[in-house]
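Can't paste images in this forum, so I'm doing it all in text. The chain is below; anyone willing to post the predicted C-alpha cells underneath?
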Amino acid sequence: MCKTCYIAGGAPKILTERTKAAAALVTEVYDWGGLGGNAQTVIDDWNVDNQSINHCLTKIEEDKKSPPERLQKEEDCLEALRDMTLDERLSTLAIHHEFI
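Text version of the structure:
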C-alpha cells in the first residue's frame, strides 16, 4: 500500500466503470496469495509506467512455475492497466486500496 506514491502522482480520483473493473482485477491477483506475483512491480510498488507494465508482462511469459490461472489473472490485470492513462492507473490502485 503506497499512499505516498498515490499522492506524489497527483492523487487523481477517476471513478469510472473502467477503473473499478481494473481494481477488481487487482484484487483477483492478490487473492492468489497476498502479493502481486509477476505484477508486483506495478501493483505492489506502484510503478505504473508502460515500461514497468511491459516488464511484468514479460515475466509472466517466462514464468513456468506458477499456475496458469494465476498467470492469466496477472496478465488480465496488467493488460487492463496498460490500456489506461497514468491517472486512471493510479486511480485503479487507489480504489483497490480504498484511498478513494
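The first helix runs from residue 3 to 8. The mean pLDDT is 94.
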